[in-house]
Fold this sequence. Notes:
The protein is α+β, with helices and mostly antiparallel strands. The protein has 5 helices and 4 strands; from the N terminus they run H-E-E-E-H-E-H-H-H.
Amino acid sequence: MEKIITPRPMTHDLFVSFAHAFGVKLKQIFIYKFEDGIFSSELTFADEERTVVLDARTSDAISLAMRTNAPIFTTKSILDETGFLMEEVGEASDDAGSEPDGDSALGKADETGFNHEPKLEQYTVEELERTLKKLIEAENYEQAAKVSDVLKRKRGE
């Protein structure tokens, strides 16, 4: 939550990097049940060929969603039972509460409108090279320059 980058990947960061390396994206999490004080959640992952839904601890699901900007859904009954209203302090910004616009990381949202890529600094050199190639092929030179800068830092250039 505090965007602290640790010297070595935490478990959730490792999981996100692993999924990314194999072309799997976290599409969403769904908190579907609250019973006896325990939330139950599902993670929906997808690649180009299939979609897989896995059961998960809600704390793990939220940690992964926060690292990938994946949307988090639940039911009205769960919100009615467990939710609370937060008091707004000061004026809200124009984009408060809006969906992620995909301007982080590679700067492009996928077909769902969400960016599910980990931060560029978390990419391996090989992943950065592949990403750079794709961005150049797509003539997205502004984002390619950003990837190139990270790649140079990783290589120590």
